[in-house]
Amino acid sequence: MITLNPPPQLILSDLNDSLNGKEINIETMINRREFIKKTSMGAAAISVAGLTQSGINHSESGIKPVGGRVIDAHMHVTPGKVKKALQVMDDNFIRYGVIIASIAGSDPDQYVGDKAFYEISEAIKPYKNRLALHYTYDWTLAETDPDFFNKAPDMLEKAVKAGAIALKNLKQLGLVARDHEGKLIAIDDPRLFPIWERAEKLGIPVAFHTGDPVAFFNPWNPKNERWEELELHPEWSFSDRSKYPPLETLFAQANNVYKKFRKIQFVSVHVGGYSENLKEVSRWLDEIPNLSVDTAARIGELGKHPASEGYDFFNKYQDRIMFGTDMAYWEGCDVQGAGPCKDFTLDEDRNFYNIHWRYLQTKDKQFDHPTPIQGKWKINGIGLQTAALKKIYWDNAYRFYKLNRFGVS
Asked: What is the span of the domain harbouring residue 104?
């Protein structure tokens, strides 16, 4: 039986304004992965248990996002899960959701590209004032279709005419995507320039998921802080330098694109892919005025920084940070930003969102972050002021995606 602690004091912003490196047995790891998924144990259980012990409970704490309305600018929703997504959104003050990539199917059997885009687009048609969708390329076409680079701009324009509000580039670009000759495609490959030029002509934003957490590029062993997450997703290990470029190379390539195409509004998701180094992300934002970031699945990593550093980052760039969670509603099960795929209850989803409000709005100390599979550390709230919170929760994404055209309010 869990003993509940007294609810922590919430310092809302409204008030502020006044195995030691051994070789990995892959077969054992995959079995462990299946065990976690099938038994619904692991990160989700840890998250809910830890949250209850901290005393944060929706009904007890009364915590809610400042302003009472939020745009989750980084979600994933498959056609069969639209109603479930809307139910969770309604329960957590999420007035509008941006489906940031056209990915469909069940975990781990997912597919992208035109098939996924048009299926999801059709499913969300009745909900234009609640949900919108990015178009996403299936980069395997660059390897199988020698004419892909010529076709790609028209594919994008067709999708925009069908309702796409932006283009999302998955992390495969620069990391694993190859051309017809089997060569790795750099993010700043000139053959991709016609795509960015077409996006500029169409007046749509472009999102990049560049790289992945630093730990995924480090050796995969028990000393790796993302050991449990890599155990669940061994395919996310990019430490083999004979196969994958360094993370720094990917960042440099992406920044080359942002700087060359200054008229395009870019969003580098997951805090630019470098939430471990806020000083470097700050440098990018200072140098590239057409760049924004989102918070998706990185509250845990952000919370590793001293609260004062987190506050300064969010406060300085409050006009260029969009709230996002990476909440994924796959066919068959859901993922809360990171961790196992399971059928979460509304209470579990509410707890997940509550931790986000708690980090951004309060000055609470040493509580569990929303994606504990990413690491076992605790985080401290940064207590942002009301004006900054309203921009991060609503104004920035509303402006970035021009949501006034859909009657969003």
From this structure: 13-406
